[in-house]
Amino acid sequence: MVVNISSFLSSSSFSLIKLTNSKPRTHLSKPLYSSLCYSFSSLDSLNLHCKNQFLRIRSRNPLGRRLEFRSWALPGFDFGNFENAQSVLEAAGVLTTIIVVHESGHFLAAYLQGIHVSKFAVGFGPILAKFNSNNVEYSIRAFPLGGFVGFPDNDPESDIPVDDKNLLKNRPILDRVIVISAGVVANIIFAYVIIFVQILSVGLPVQEAFPGVLVPEVRAFSAASRDGLLPGDVILQVNGSELPKAGPSAVLELVDVIKKNPKKNVLLKVGRGQQDYEFGVTPDENFDGTGKIGVQLSPNVKVSKVLPKNLVEAFNYTGKEFWGLSSNVLDSLKQTFLNFSQSASKVSGPVAIIAVGAEVARSNIDGLYQFAAILNINLAVINLLPLPALDGGSLALILIEAARGGRKLPLELEQRIMSSGIMLVVLLGLFLIVRDTLNLDFVRDML
């Protein structure tokens, strides 16, 4: 599975990231794989830090923290901290559930058509726990890079004859298309259900934008805490320039100034309570030479919630929200591919998505609804791309087979195509896990 979390930012206007689903050839014994990679194109949430803590006050926008899930960290900044074990478990639970839903789509599509299935796994690599039921091995594996559904088509240890009509490889093209696309369909349906439950339980979030950039959180012992920034502050100006009205552009403009001025004084005008203050903040230098001050940033918006009066209105709200989030996902993915040279460094793995999800859960559990919905939509869209190791790649091979009058490509060629794609996804996932782990605040502080 592959997901682009950049849409989290857009939807506040907001990678986790994206879950990626990768699958090998469909008519072989190889499993349908799901791998995890995320693109953080949104730059909303950074860790920018401040020195004296005076005038401890409450945020004048107490609902601002509701939107922290729309804020994302950049490589070298704060991907979220893991101090709260419960929030980390909640984020990991969301991610695992999405993987299970995706793979369950493939599994059920095969099972309901009478197609033989041999394995259902969450994760890759060595088996940590497993059990068998109805000739299917269910397992949890060591590397949290996704999951897979395995078929016994070319398994030398299988007792099923190679010409069995219920092997996936022997099924008509339409049957195989249904199995491969079922994971995407499952994630789309799950995203809609999540939004519907959110609408019924907590209401539809409605935002009102205000000038400036909100500071939901300030890290202890950071540049921001040393120089006087407090949680709840609203940054209105930077070096004498007014920040635009709340939105990604305001956050990006502030971030850009901070990054470009390590160890240099940056003059901020800050709204606190009913008064405005001006003081300088000197960003610390990051390991990559950019500046950081150690705060989270998010658009300065007030969020209210509208509950539906009846089921008809609930479905209406759900449809609008689902379409809005889907449009944001598509737009952010488009921007990622159009500016890939700039956005490639913002691709992140499961460690980063869990860190971001933990921040969401720690801020407000309600945010997990849209967090989960956007991850599902991301996963669905990216897995339709015609790339090796993704659902779309497997569908592309089937379309080629159909165009050739039902003649499959040589088995060895398909194996090379899909195996190379799977290998690249696994290597990328492992690289991102290491990189994202090194980018975690508490890890960087120990280095």
Automatic annotation (TrEMBL):
Belongs to the peptidase M50A family. SUPFAM superfamilies: PDZ domain-like. The keyword Cytoplasm does not apply. One of its GO terms (molecular function) is metalloendopeptidase activity. It comes from Rhamnella rubrinervis. Residues 202-267 form the PDZ domain. The chain crosses the membrane at residues 177-200, 417-434. This is PDZ domain-containing protein. Its main location: membrane. GO terms for cellular component: membrane. Keywords: Hydrolase, Membrane, Metalloprotease, Protease, Transmembrane, Transmembrane helix, Zinc. GO terms for biological process: proteolysis. Its cofactor is Zn(2+). It is a multi-pass membrane protein. It is found in: Membrane.
